[in-house]
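Tip: read the tokens left to right.
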């Protein structure tokens, strides 16, 4: 009987360690750059644009939401009404999220991409990938959105592969890379 109790306790302890590891991995994934540095300012600028666009969707303010998109996206849709209609129909988690969690800012194919965990109106989680471009005046614009199912793989006991964040020199080069 004592051996059975020991096994039960060991499994319980192992379960606690697994839970702690999951929370640690999630905390690392959600942690942004240190406050006050150039990476923090960059991330905050990107997050503010996305947050403001999501708020515009909540108000059904198509004109404001459209203003946060890149010139290419604006050309593609032609009008704020067409853009709002498309988002309302095909991107329900972006249009009416129940919750929003900003994940890491990644650097992919020469562009900054903000990952956002959204819970849609149906309760289903998705990860929205927002590629960003920097305008000549230094402001950020959203250059599209891709929704990816939230698979929960980050909650495994295996650590995820780290997403490299560009150093300050690479960030300074982003506007040039985007214009090409």
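Filled-in amino acids:
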């Amino acid at each position: 009987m004592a051996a059975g109790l020991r096994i039960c306790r060991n499994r319980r302890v192992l379960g606690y360690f697994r839970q702690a590891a999951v929370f640690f991995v999630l905390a690392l994934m959600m942690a942004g750059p240190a406050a006050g540095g150039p990476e923090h300012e960059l991330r905050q600028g990107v997050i503010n644009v996305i947050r403001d666009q999501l708020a515009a969707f909540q108000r059904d303010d198509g004109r404001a939401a459209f203003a946060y998109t890149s010139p290419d996206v604006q050309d593609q849709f032609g009008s704020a009404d067409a853009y709002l209609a498309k988002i309302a129909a095909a991107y329900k988690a972006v249009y009416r999220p129940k919750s929003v969690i900003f994940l890491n800012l990644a650097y992919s194919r020469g562009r900054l991409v903000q990952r956002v965990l959204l819970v849609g109106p149906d309760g289903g989680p998705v990860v929205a990938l927002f590629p960003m471009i920097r305008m000549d005046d230094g402001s950020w614009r959203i250059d599209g959105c891709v929704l990816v199912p939230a698979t929960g793989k980050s909650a495994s006991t295996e650590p995820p592969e780290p997403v490299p964040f560009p150093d300050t020199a690479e960030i300074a080069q982003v506007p040039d890379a985007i214009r090409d």
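Residues 34-179 form a domain with the Nuclear Transport Factor 2; Chain: A, fold (CATH 3.10.450). DSSP finds seven helices and five strands in the chain.
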